[in-house]
Amino acid sequence: MSHNLNGKAALVTGGSRGIGREIAKRFAADGATVAVTYNANSTGADETVAAIEKAGGTAFALQADLLDAGSIPDLFEKLDRELAERKGGNALDILVNNAGNEGWANLSDATPEAWDAIFAVHARAPFFMVQSALSRFSDDARIINLSSGLSTRPLPSAPVYSAAKAAINTLTHVLAMELGARGITVNAVAPGWTATDMNTAVRENADMLKGIEADTALGRFGETSDIAAVVAFLASDDGRWVTGQVIEASGGYRL
C-alpha cells in the first residue's frame, strides 16, 4: 500500500463486517489510525481490529447504535478519549458513513417502523455524525458517504432503502457546498452488486448470479476491496479536487 494516510485519524461506521471492514483495513494499511463502530456485532468489530493489528496497523472499536441520533455525541466523546490517548488530540481527518441496515420491504410490506429505521441509519445518522464531527475535523478533512446504485436505479422490492440512498446523495451535495470553504471534501460512493453476507442468497442462486454478471460490463460480482479502493482514493490527497460527487462503483452494471 502507499501509506499515504500516515498520521491521519479515520472513523468508519459499521466496520464490523463487509464493505466497512474492508475500508477500515485499507485505511490502516495506508497508515491511518482507524476507529470502527458497531451496533450489536462486537465479535465482528473485534475481528476487524485484530485483522488490522495483525497486519501491523492501528485500530479500535466503539459501540454505537445509530438508530438513536442522541447516541452520536456520546460516540464522539468516546472517540475523543481514544484519539487523545493514541495521538495526543482529537482531530479527525476522515469520516466514512457506512453503517446500514436491511431494507428489503416492498410497498405492501413496508411499515412506518421500517421506514423510520432505514432512514434513521442511512440518512439521519450521517447528517448528525457530520454535525458532531464539525469541531473535530481537520482542515482538508474527507467525508465519504456510502450510497447505492439503487439511489438512481431504484427497485420496487426496496423502495424505502432506495429513497434513503437517494437522500444521502442529496446530503452529499449540500455538505460539499457547506464545508468547501474549509477545504473539506464530501463525496458518496455508490456500490453495485458487491459480495457481502447480505446478498449470499443471491450469489448462491446460479441463475441470478449469471444474470447479474451478464449485466455487468466487467463481467463479475464486485468485491469489498473494489469499493474500499475507491473510498481510499477519495480519502487520499489524490482525491483533493473531487467533491460533491456520487461515484458509482459497480463494474459497469447495466451500462
CATH architectural category: 3-Layer(aba) Sandwich
Residue share in β-strands: 15-25%
| Quaternary organisation | single chain
- The best one-word shape is globular
- Secondary structure tally: strands: 7
Strand order of the largest sheet: 3-2-1-4-5-6-7
Give a description of the structure.
With 255 residues, the chain is of the alpha/beta class. It has a single domain, classed as NAD(P)-binding Rossmann-like Domain (Rossmann fold). 43% of the residues lie in helices and 17% in strands. It is built from eight helices and seven strands, in the order βαβαβαβαβαβαααβ. It has helices spanning 18-29, 42-54, 72-87, 112-133, 159-179, 200-204, 206-214, 224-235; strands spanning 9-12, 33-38, 58-63, 92-97, 137-146, 185-191, 246-249. The protein has a seven-stranded parallel sheet, with helices on both faces. α2 links the parallel β2 and β3 (58-63). α1 runs parallel beside α2, α1 (18-29) packs across α8 and α4 packs parallel to α5. The mean pLDDT is 95.
Please describe the structure with a list of short key phrases separated by commas or semicolons:
255 residues, Rossmann fold, 8 helices, 7 strands
